[in-house]
């Protein structure tokens, strides 16, 4: 009996229409631009308008991939974020309403730092195993904020990844088993009432590599997969140099062929992340999207390895098989063109936008006339967020 395939059927992405050039930020902070361009591996940083939040960006990403027929079959919406807009009500229920998904649906929000979307993906996989005719909409959306003139400032960013999970997926079949590892570690956190994250950067980077070594070794024990069995290795990218450090750790004893192949695919996979910055929960999956959009050497049938990490800390390494005609799962969207059409802002404009985001405000009307997005945050009335879908 042939086992049912379950995995990513479609994938979509959305970010702000504004960006800050990292050279401009470096000059304003009196830093060598190469500290940002090479040292952390970032070229641009998404600048999120006050009229955009995780719900609106998620709605835009999802709208790009889901059809009216998909909406009829979606029976679960799982929204992963660490930029939640309510401590009780899930972002998923707002999203389902904006998208016009039928009301006979489950809507939940999940959280574990940047690992959240992987937890959502695994939940979706288990649900489809029991309900093979259904589809699950998985979201990873965040606005990464550390603060102006803080050490983490150049690793900010934001956006949303939307994934439709189903049986017989078009893009990636998820394999078993996976390797997971967790410890209670204070490398990154955001206490209640804080709009900006707190982080011990150097410590967190070390934990990332320690957890990668642990789950890589565990996955090998479970599967026996060697470097030659992978077409590409993907990483959570809080900044793209972090993933490069992880890849180099894995490739320490690699053959020239394996090292050349996996390094080449990693460069394709980090292209979009270099242009956007940190997506937190969506970071790993933006890297996957970047790989399948930009690589001219990746092939269907190849195995993709994915390392997911969320501070605090949780890690998982899992694999998937790239499916025939996987490009169909992109729904014909030209993401490079979308990124190229963004508008640059100055450092002072970025700082103004950063300080204008609303948190814990009872009443406010936002000026959304300059925002041409399909979905907008109009303001707050009696602590109730008001959204507009066009």
UniProtKB/TrEMBL annotation:
Q: Which GO terms describe its molecular function?
A: hydroxymethylglutaryl-CoA synthase activity
Q: Does the keyword tRNA processing apply?
A: no
List, alphabetically, the InterPro entries matched. Answer: HMG_CoA_synt_C_dom, HMG_CoA_synth_N, HMG_CoA_synthase_prok, Thiolase-like
One Gene Ontology biological process: acetyl-CoA metabolic process
Query: Keywords in UniProt for this one?
Result: Transferase
| Catalytic machinery residues | 82 (proton donor/acceptor), 114 (acyl-thioester intermediate), 236 (proton donor/acceptor)
- Residue ranges annotated for the Hydroxymethylglutaryl-coenzyme A synthase C-terminal domain, each copy included: 178-260, 271-356
Hydroxymethylglutaryl-coenzyme A synthase N-terminal domain location is 6-167
Q: Which residues are listed for (3S)-3-hydroxy-3-methylglutaryl-CoA binding in this entry?
A: 32, 146, 245, 278
- Gene3D superfamilies noted in UniProt: 3.40.47.10
Family in the record: Belongs to the thiolase-like superfamily. HMG-CoA synthase family.
Q: What is this protein called?
A: Hydroxymethylglutaryl-CoA synthase
What organism is listed for this UniProt entry? Liquorilactobacillus hordei DSM 19519
